Amino acid sequence: MRKLKIGNIEISKYPLLLAPMEDITDRSFRYICKRYGADILYTEFIASEALIRDIYKSKQKLLFETDERPVGIQIYGHDIENMVEAAKIAESANPDLIDINFGCPVKKIATRGAGAGMLRDIPKMIEMTKQIVKAVKLPVTVKTRLSWDFDTIKIDEFAEELQDTGIQALTIHGRTRAQLYKGISDWTLIGKVKNNPNIKIPIIGNGDVTNGPQAKEMFDRYGVDGIMIGRATIGKPWVFKEIKHFLETGEEMPELTLTQKIELAKEHFKKSLEIKGMPRGFFETRRHFALYFKGLPDFKQLRLKLLTSVEEEEVLELLNLINEKYKDF
């Protein structure tokens, strides 16, 4: 039986992980994803400099609830000393693991040498990882991409170097930084790393998995120890449950009914208000709402009202109205 082991974390059978995403994987969203089958959750990624400077918004990202465990805190930055200090601060929040972001392709991050920008300086990447592993007692993991661009693909080489630093798992997104999120994620290279006899740590694959059949193919064909899912969860946090249902039964799970989606939206909304209050709790949840109801016909006006409401009761009334209007859809 497949088993993903990272430190004291052990996930058997078909490990599914929620990818860290800025402005998406906050506490309320993680709460919903956990309820629907995510095995390991990650915070939004956090800038090392912001943690060191004690920026309030960044320090808030360190917070999580006990029922989210196992949970990882992901940090990024270009300066080794700052990253080591940030890792220590993250460790003080008592997560289950510390993850280093060497994969974010966003221009303002990558062009400063952080995130995927570190792929242009592999020796520095290795040294930074080594120093962080030495500085903290928690398991350290890394998330990265195949390379900076197609001309410099060496993931099979530097994966071994990363392993030698003492990290306890490696997540690989099957694109280069130059691709951003375009094109198709190349799982053959992820599989090449996983099947390298010198690689002993868990290899987690990431990129383009949106359903059960795809997940089964990646587990079976490439032998990865886990699958990390990011963009497919936005507007569909129940995707973990759908994938696990297929992996365990070989059958597609029935689509959630509109009423079930409405109740999920309410739960998500109320959890966000509980954590952040109004109006922030709603402002940071409404991006999900529009996608929860994607595909409903003639939904433009209701969608606009839902996205511009500023009162809690009005939001709940609109959700009830959607349920009534489309009950036969």
Describe this structure in words.
- This protein is an alpha/beta fold and 329 residues long.
- It contains 15 helices and eleven strands.
- It has helices spanning 27-35, 48-52, 56-60, 80-92, 107-110, 122-135, 155-164, 187-194, 212-222, 239-249, 258-276, 280-283, 286-292, 300-308, 312-325, and strands at residues 3-6, 9-12, 16-18, 41-42, 46-47, 71-76, 97-102, 140-145, 170-173, 203-206, 226-229.
- The strands form two sheets. Strands 3, 4, 5, 6, 7, 8, 9, 10 and 11 form a nine-stranded parallel β-sheet that branches. A two-stranded antiparallel ribbon has the order 1-2.
- Helix 6 runs parallel beside helix 7 (155-164), helix 9 (212-222) packs across helix 10 (239-249) and helix 11 (258-276) runs antiparallel to helix 15.
- The longest helix is centred in the C-terminal third of the chain and has 19 residues, at 258-276.
- The termini are far apart.
- The model has no long low-confidence stretch (mean pLDDT 92).
